[in-house]
What we know:
21% strand; 21 helices; alpha+beta; Transposase Inhibitor Protein From Tn5, Chain A, domain 1; five-stranded antiparallel β-sheet; 19 strands; disordered N terminus; ten-stranded mixed β-sheet
Amino acid sequence: MMTRRLIRETPHIYEQRRPSAGSATKSVMQNIHRIDALELGTFGVYDKVLQELGFRQAVEIGLGDDGDIPADVALRCLVQSRLAGEKPSPLSRISEWLSSTILPTWYGVSPEKVNEYRLGRLLEKLPDQMEAIWATLITNAHQRYELDVKDLVGDGTTVTFAGKYEGSELATRGREPDVKQMLLTLNVTSRHGIPVVWDIFPGNTTDNTTVCGNVTKIVQMAERLGIEPSDIVTWGDRGRLNYDIIRAYHRDNVKYIGSMQVSKSQTELIDTVSDTQLFANPLTYETAKGVKLCYGHRTTMTIPATSRGKKVKDAVEIEEPALVVFLPELKESQRADREKNLGRYWKRLEQIASFLNNGNYCKKTYAEAQLKKAETEYSSVSKLVAWTLTGEDKNLTMSLTRLHDACEHAGRYDGRFVVLFNCPHLSDEEIIRRLRGRNIVEQTIGDLKGTIEVAPIYLHDDRRIKGLIFICMVALLVQSIVVMLLARAKLQMTARKLNAALKGNKASVLTMTDGSVVLHIPQARPQEAFLLRILDSEQGKAEVITPGEDSYLRWAARLAEARGS
Length: 565
């Protein structure tokens, strides 16, 4: 059995040796002072990807090295804590968590030096350098793993905070009044969900106001990778589009697919397409529940050179390709939502009617104010009901009428919407498959909030918060790459399943009587050896191996050689 000896005085130099049976083994056993069995798990797998991404070099260039331990080592420990498949430890307890793992021996550091003070200072320094570091990581990832960054799916999610956060620019009040949050947007590759572009905003920022800046980041990424921006197609959730964003896509020559919130111009376009035209073109797309059917008709829509009635400087009218789409499943959900909201609105109006001529509701002005408030709260259905309030103070009467013609007209647009795009070379089916195939970005966000557990955040300094989000995004990048390598080898395995498969995989740290340390990695079990061989192979291509082959040990030895060089 091969072992590795880590010399404490020179932590990045390893001695590899194969002890012979008999006297050599007996000599080693006699010189052992203490044996610690520590968790190895997926640490080596993820550290290998961090090395291939050039994390150490990027951090050294960006942050320098002014502490007791190298900045890259401290930050790698923090990244690993997010990838461990456990509840992440707060900064104040990172040292304690490290002591239970193999990482101090693996990196050649003392756990006590990876403390809250050191990590906090690094997090505060990261915001000034994290864009440059991230650019380096993505460039290296594209070169090493041949990422397909020409199809990008975008979305946004909120990250919650624990505490009041008074005075914070990031932690602001969101949709729920008692919850502080911020907005995180990201674009991932459509095939494997690799995050390539991301940004953070105050929690009260609306999604579509972030898109123009996102387009700029996509162009910058394309330039770094030597890709023409016009070769990139990006799309996202329905409604994350407006005229200004469309003009930004055209200005930067980036291809997009998207839809806007329902407006008069869109309903007018929908009215120009007959049912005969619409149903003559059936389209299919895949979902987690199987193949779905929809219908579409290609036409054009004029994008005006104005915004809110005012001429936009240097803007011209654009004749944009458009696809009028009908989704049967969307029709049912929209109808159900409308009926539910209409029922709630009707119930609220009946409640107001029952309060009339009692207390404040004796006054007509107060009753009218409450009715107007209800209209605002249920604005999506308020035009489907007519109410009248008659009489004088203390003698008020109210009548309600459901407007059936208006309800029927509203139902006309159930399941129908307009898709806009500037990539006419794509077929109608390719357009709809991309727009409906957003589950990959939702899965990536699920990983960010699940296995990496980005929220809730307990830090109370905006710079530290930004630094921690960066660490979480690096962890997400590394995790996504590992899952991609497994997928390329025809092995569909989530990060959670990989963590479970390698959990309990321990290594022995032998402290010798002379103060040196021997790190002993046992022979991998067949399943572990198979997984680790896949992750260590060129471009993730799988090879058939003999069960029990000691690939983990050979991989660890090569890793040690790489660190030594």
